[in-house]
Write a structure and sequence with these properties.
Layout: H1 12-27, H2 37-42, H3 53-58, H4 77-93, H5 97-104, E1 116-118, H6 145-158, H7 163-183, E2 215-217, H8 235-248, H9 258-264, H10 273-288, H11 297-308, H12 311-314, H13 321-345, H14 348-364, H15 386-411, H16 432-436, H17 448-451, H18 461-488, H19 492-516, H20 519-524, H21 526-548, H22 556-560, H23 564-579, H24 595-608, H25 616-629, H26 637-650, H27 665-672
Amino acid sequence: MPSTTAAPPADGINAGSTREGNKSAKSGRQNPGPACQHCRMRKFRCDRQRPCGGCVDAGLRCRFDPTPPQKGPKKGHLKLLRSRIAALERKMGETPEEDQDDHLDPRKSPGPIEVRLDLDDESDYGDGDGDWDSGPAPSQTQIPTPVRAAVAAVSSTAVAVTTSAAATALAAAMSDIDTMLSLHIDIPPFQTSMPMSSPTSISSITPSTKNFPGHHPVFLGPTPPAAAPSMAIPPLIRTDLDQLYFDRVHVFIPILHRRRYFARGRPGAGASASYACLQAAIRTLAAALSSQFNHLRHDLYHDALRRLNHPASCAPGGGSAEDDETRRLELAQAWILVAIYEFMQGTVQRAWTSAGLAIRIVQLMRLHDVDGGAAPAHLDMGVDDPNAFVDREVKRRVFWVAFCLDRFSCVLEKLPLTLDEKTILTRLPCPEQAFQSQTPVTMPFLSDLDAAPDSISLQSPFVDSIVFTAIWGRALCHQQQCAAESARGGPAAEVCRRHVQLHDLLSCRMLHFERSYTAASVEADSLLLFTSMVAQVSVLALADAADLIPAVAAGYADVLALGYAWRGPAAAREIARLAEYLPQFSLFKVHPFTPIPLFLCRQLLLKLGPRDGALDGDLGVITRTLEELREVNQLCQEKMDVGMALETMCYHPGFLDGADGMLSPFDKDMMML
């Protein structure tokens, strides 16, 4: 009878191949890599493809998270920790009395303790997809780094305090350990600590720059520190934030000389407290315009405020007049950047306060008179010296940025302006290339526009934005004067003359702007695009001023000849057309004050919407653009939410019925179009 037993392999090679094939088949049953989010939530086996088969079959969007979730402690770890602490308590109870007296000697007390949690170390937490190991309790060498660090902190605390005080510190440490391990609360990065005031607590926990991104100092004391020190950011992160500022912010706020800034920040350069304030403000604004460091912006912002409000930053340094002026100039720059950040990420009230501080410092430094006869003696230097030219040019740029900030912060609520344009004796800033290369250039004054609107030959996008912002501010003042003269019954001839003068100046500058820059260059440059919007919103301001003229002027027909019955809606349509090019830019490279002209344009479109259905498309463009900017810029968003709540009322049938008698002549003219 033939045997049914299979014959053995002819040689050992086939057997080895079979075993290797079985091993590879066994190990290859699951592809490497993380499972997708949907498979994890539904507890399905994911094939690790992109997209995976389960999501394709279910018709879902497959999403992968490259960073595995943090796992809690394995079974037995917490129990082992509790047993070790109990043994430690028993050992402390058996400590001889003379040993305790030795521990009270401050000369024999241990030094500062620094406890770190290594949140990036996942070697003891499994592979990220499997369940916790249900095996026996691990040995001491298998205890994860966070647990060993916490136990070491408790052990160090025990030998540094008395028995009675040790019980309090031990209970606080035990509570913190239970919170970290059982509740599994993530500890935010860059938390630093200061020495405790209590003599029985841990002496100090020193911050370190090595705590990024996964090492976080943890304060194990029973009470929080009284005041937090400055943030400790690694040098590479600081360098990256500085570079982000010059890439994304400096083009709109060019108040820094790049070479000088980086030279002062080098080790051993002797940076002052005011320069540290400026650095903190720069990095705050850079983090707000970054997705990589966006989570740091709040901590950086509070660090900047803490530095700016510190007495060492505000007190005179006791040096020369030039050093004191440099200190005040850096404080003005820092407050300007903080105000812009608060306009983008905070409340308008806080931003107004910070902007007011910056403007007051600018006024105290008399930066409105840099090139006039009232300038300080140490500023009266020729433009042939490159260093002297840069010093004076920085002052000019700080003043003009504060000048624009004053206009932008007042135009939303139609508040009176702070910086009077009639007293300015500071020349316009030179082109950026000449400034960075330290090439002396003589620029005209802003008042030269009144004599010859085309007199500015060495123009730049920054200068054009200043010019149109100044015209916008004049239109705002014109509105306020019209309202005041309407209440007082002032002379009508003066109102009409001022209105025509502003109209001629704005028309001439807009024509000069169109000749200087092609349409393609405006659409490809975010600063030029914003400047063009400011020019159009100045037309809207003059249209609003024309609405106030009939109450004080008999010759209202002459004003209508200027075409403001159709110029206002035409300017709103042009702003909507320009807004369609904003999605071509990164949200991080849009001018911080872009929402202001968009919001004012939206207000006019809402006003005209029930009467002109053709404006619905433009209103949709403006609304979508503001919604997209909301992710990085909160300016005007609160006002827009209120406007959207009233939008339904504005479009309700019969909303304007019975209100025709309340309409101004300007509104009635637009209704007839």
